[in-house]
Specification:
43% helix; 11 helices; alpha/beta; 320 residues; Rossmann fold; 18% strand; seven-stranded mixed β-sheet; 2 domains; homotetramer
């Protein structure tokens, strides 16, 4: 391949810029030309792109968000949309595309690949909810941002002998909530993957800790569970501890990328270009037991992820 | 005076610990004994206190919250409560008290002073809503924490061409919202002190900026205004810009104290002890045009604060 | 005036970008055209400038450093250099210039003003060493960055029962060192403005604290004193406490601007444009007891700054 | 086992407290008693320890450093010292010890195990230089702290068109330097594990980048190489780019533990107690391809670590 495109799609994740940079720079090492496509598949269909230079990606490795912007495209989710995208690629001479995003983005990459434009996916979502890979870019930054914010809540909770009930992002997945919950020593962690009973898994645990003179508490609730306002009221009613609900919200998306996200994005970006350079498409770059590998997109999308129950048990044992 | 008490009361504010430390240390320089009273006036009534040593306040200057804890006391707000407090003071030999908190706390200090226990107030609240002083401990940290969080939101808003509508604390006051709004370059800032019209002051401003190719926006709303969810819907409806509401919440209370808060608390703490050492009570320590002074509590509570309209205009002029 | 220039000069300071933004935006409100001059007076002489637009200064308020770059110019420090600068201004139609920097930069502004190009200075240096103003942009950020770093050192010092001897920036001035020293609870603070005796002001203070069971220490040394390696050795030799010297260095320049720096820069930037709009030059914008005012540059450069000895005493009293 | 001891030894590392907490809490789950031994093997020999309670480890998971303090002990490094330690253990009823530290600490654990007190090591050092494990507690925090500081330097380097030459910790290992170097987009990274030629690997790379209009540079040098002052001078001499050397120093030790360090410490702490509970000693807990396992201490100490040359090449390819 001589010319490739690159786009970011779906929710933004810290580290996407580091991945864009790695793709551009390693494509240049291999003598390729790179088009930066703005606002994901929508930009592809609208031919909203620019030829990137070596210095286009200078001083972005430390920036959250995505310099290529991102958007959702309804139009692309149709055979006509895909056909339009293929046409634009032909016109521009784009022979392959690196798609940085989550599973929705990979479905687009699969369709484009099937239509003759080989695509390689790089997993990037703060939710870490992709079954095909141990890691998705943005997860480490988001969990650290969430944890830093709950560390702030701890201070005021402690001063007032209160309980903070905090909703952490993650869509239908509880990975972000679990890591954050362990990191802040949460007395209870509620995630969609583990059945729970509020009386047993929250109220009893708080009451038990109260007996050992603990007077302030943190309860972490995954976005997929929600209901932090009701839960706060219920905890107060059952324990007498004043509660304050907090929904951390989009702040969690915005962190300065951590080292893990910058390095992982760099490694995955280089790997993706290596595949396209060999003409290989329809692959997702993955982390598999600390090794960078790649797998078929169809297979990747069909996999189901197992929740780390053992880690969840660690949290329960030591946060008392 | 040979023996004084110290308590923190009302909402916690970063820098309270630095004030406690300064009070203890400067009392020691003057040969005084200090009782640390836990959980504000409630602890005073319950005789929940301990004699502090030089090292009791080591390694707390950098900690948010309050090592003396804080609480609201209904009981103290009655002549019987105050009488009880006086009795405890006599029993313990406490001749004066330093009260760190906001206007509610100062009303208690006024009542105690009137009942024979001279009190000196140190203003500490993240809202900076006390008329008697240019500065209240905790304000600088809170406004920096709020700004850092909106900086995070900016990143994701920009990637998605969105508008972030953010509620900032401050109870009935807009100082925190104004400082944060200027610092993040908010297109609109709504505060209780300034009348507003959403169409003119938010929608028109956004539309005008859109014409100059601005695609992402930040709107800051003071807690005293609220309604960020409705406002988000309205902005989307009128401008077509996707909006995300965020309520920053108690995270704003928890920051590591900034230098301004640590230094201001140190200066005010020393000044408060200087007053008690001379037997002077019923005073509030204040910052008046960068000078540390003190004024009568009755007077302090009667003052009304003027909003800095000129600064508000600066914000409007340059955030376009 | 219809057209003005803006430049940043001398050492960079966090908040310079916020000042540039305020100048550009308030000039636009007044219908002026603005040239952004790159790399200070050197860029002016080389005619290295560009016409700024409303959006040129978008998304920079939160960035440290200066988007206009900065440099020192030997050539400008001569009558020929100034004449060249005046010629370029005439050619470009530049009728006045806003100069953001420290005293060296203001000397240039004075010379240019005297040669017919009215200049207004905005004080920006992390050292806060200008006599004419209570505040210089960048100081708040730098003192918070320095404090955060010494907070990190405290953690490891405490774990090892060590003494950290830390050099803080400030050139010949001790303001940064004093604020940092108070904020970290330094057992000793050495600044050029206060005579000291190492045995009395460092060793004795450490030994006295050791008797009260303090086992880890922080000593802050202003850049103007230096010698942290020798001082470390000496402390170890005299007290038996293991010491670690650290020179914080240029890291202190790079912080994300704090709210104080962003707001102060916004206010000063607007004030500077207000002056030029009225055709007034040869002035420095200053903070005088929390009010923004302006004074004559000649006078400003002739003033001498007094060190806050009272604050220094506060530090000595409470850090024991 | 009914009673165990726990100590931290060698250089402090962020996350040590999280490990202590996990050990205490999971020992309690298993009905064990835990002695907290102060200042490592030195405290063991001096019988400086205290019985820990459930709440002894509250609110420490977010703190860097070690609540048990750390120190080096010359006396313990002798058969007599070990014998003394064994005697103290017998007296106290300590049947096993968890040792948190680096390879020096593990040699002590090996000797104690051989003398009849089964020990389990938990790897904790910011250098990540232990061959037996993919991860040592503290590494993630340290590399993020180092990166944040170089991010600050980048800002000022860029404003002045300078080159920052930065020494990063790591003793004889280059892991911290490599991760930091990739994360900051360093033009050159010098580590002890890879042979280098300054002209080819630093000067030529900078000159090549200058041709593509890059004007500011970062060079990362591992502690094991050092010489940043000389290197700075040499770069200036050869390229004309102004250089500023910085030695980050002990600040790198002090960070608030990241999520990875808190979670890894929690997992390793639980695993260590699980081993002692079964009477198993002379083991080191390790991370092996994202799995927590354990290996023989003798074997662990005999292993040699391989440097990730492929990752080093990634750095060279994309930082241009």
């Amino acid at each position: 391949m001589k010319t490739i495109g690159i786009l970011t799609s779906g929710g933004d994740a810290p580290g996407m810029n580091a991945a864009v940079r790695a793709v551009v720079r390693s494509a240049f090492v291999k003598g390729m030309k790179v088009f930066g496509i703005r606002r994901g598949y929508q930009g592809l269909i609208k031919d909203d792109m620019f030829e990137m230079e070596l210095r286009s990606v200078s001083d972005i490795i430390q920036c959250g968000g995505t310099m290529l912007y991102t958007a959702r495209s309804v139009e692309f989710n149709s055979p006509e949309g895909v056909a339009k995208a293929v046409k634009i690629c032909k016109k521009r001479g784009i022979e392959g595309i690196v798609v940085i995003g989550g599973d929705g983005s990979f479905r687009g990459a699969r369709d484009l690949s099937a239509s003759g434009i080989p695509c390689v996916g790089i997993p990037a979502t703060i939710d870490n909810d992709l079954a095909c890979t141990d890691y998705t870019i943005g997860f480490d930054t988001a969990m650290n941002t969430a944890t830093q914010m709950v560390d702030l809540l701890r201070v005021t909770s402690e001063s007032h002998d209160r309980c903070s009930v905090v909703e952490v992002m993650g869509r239908r997945a509880g990975y972000l909530a679990l890591q954050t919950g362990i990191s802040v020593g949460a007395t209870a962690i509620l995630v969609p993957e583990v059945e729970y009973n509020v009386d047993k898994d929250v109220i009893s645990r708080i009451k038990k800790s109260m007996k050992t003179n603990k007077r302030h508490f943190i309860v972490i609730v995954a976005e997929g569970i929600g209901m932090v306002n009701d839960l706060s009221d219920y905890i107060y009613q059952k324990t007498g501890i004043e509660c304050r609900p907090t929904i951390l919200g989009h702040v969690q998306r915005g962190g300065v990328p951590t080292v893990t996200d910058r390095v992982m994005a760099s490694r995955m970006g280089c790997h993706a270009v290596g595949l396209l350079a060999k003409g290989i498409g329809n692959r997702v770059v993955v982390l598999d037991h600390s090794q960078i590998k790649d797998i078929d997109i169809f297979e990747a999308l069909a996999m189901t992820k197992e929740f780390d129950k053992k880690l969840y048990q660690v949290a329960r044992d030591i946060s008392v």
